[in-house]
Specification:
65 residues, 11% strand, three-stranded antiparallel β-sheet
Length: 65
């Protein structure tokens, strides 16, 4: 049986942590930043973990994880 190819778009969006969880980037930090507070922008700059509802889909796209 052949190896499963990695979805390259997903590989660029998600990183695997040391404990095996998936890290993702937060949304809303691309444009229209002037109306957002500095506190909000700082929080959006931090990474977040993938929710348990989406974990199965992300694992399917990244077979190496």
């Amino acid at each position: 049986m052949p190896k499963i190819k990695t979805k390259r778009s997903a590989a660029k969006r998600f990183n695997v942590t040391g404990t095996g969880k998936f890290r993702r980037r937060r949304q809303n930090l691309r444009h229209i930043l002037s109306k957002k507070s500095a506190k909000r922008k700082m929080r959006l700059g931090q990474s977040a973990l993938v929710d348990s509802a989406n974990l199965k889909a992300v694992r399917r796209m990244l077979p190496y994880a």
